[in-house]
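Much of what follows relies on a compact textual record of a protein's fold. With that in mind, consider the following protein and its fold in token form.
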Amino acid sequence: MNWFFIALAAPFLWALVNIADNYLVSRFSQKEKERSSGALALFASVVGIFIAFTIWVFMPNVFNIPFLDKTLLTLAGALTIVWILMYLFALEIEDTSAVVPWFLAIPITGYILGYFFLGETLSFQQLVGSSVIFSGLIIISIDFSGEKKKFKHKPALYMLCASIAVATSGIIFKYVTIEGNFWVSSFWEYLGVSLTGILIYLLVPHYRANFHQMNKTGGFKILVLNVVTELMSISGNLLTNLALLLAPVTMVYLVGSFQPAIVLFLTIVGTKFFPHIVKENISKKALMPKVIAIVLMTIGSMLLLI
């Protein structure tokens, strides 16, 4: 069962990234101004420049691919910035443990896109699994705190857009990348991340001003955290690839679906012992819908993958 712990390490690292993202948003965004955390994405663009440059140093043949492939991979990088922005906007107004489960909708979004653009079809079991996941998403998007239940449409809309952007970016990357060309494709994707950040900096004065303000108040800390989280994300991807060599693909991806549960556990522990890093409502009334939703979505993921 060594593969299990290798596979489990990946969602654990990604969950830590989610906690770090929540910290950055709560610490450096202006909560009174909606969508003020967008400038944090510019720091991800800065990291993208360093990663693209590093890949180019070790693989100077990155330019030896067709122009169309370069364009598509750059677009995939731009979509990466789009989903990061949507994700950060959702973190501004919703708990991390209620935002992260939305990433389990990415396979469903990928299936839908594959149906329309690649001619793929869903089996009955996959349709049932998708329905179960969406049921969990509906539950986790309902506010049960007041007398009247209400649907939290803004974070749901942000994360739906993020899921579509992630799925589209992934399809483009997979479509363009051929065997042995991973790092070449990664170069162009990170270049797209960097160029999109530069365009946002030049064309959106609000984010440019926020970026400068964040640099004054904690620029080095933000940059270091972005570097660390990016390295953790890459490490998670590499661990997943290693686990895929040791176990069936479906089992590895099923372990990856535990990420929302890990995030929920970390937010509970963090709220109790490290409230300066993460703080959420962990009352029984707030936790039970999340637990039920995450259990449902994990079952749905099993139906999708097995």
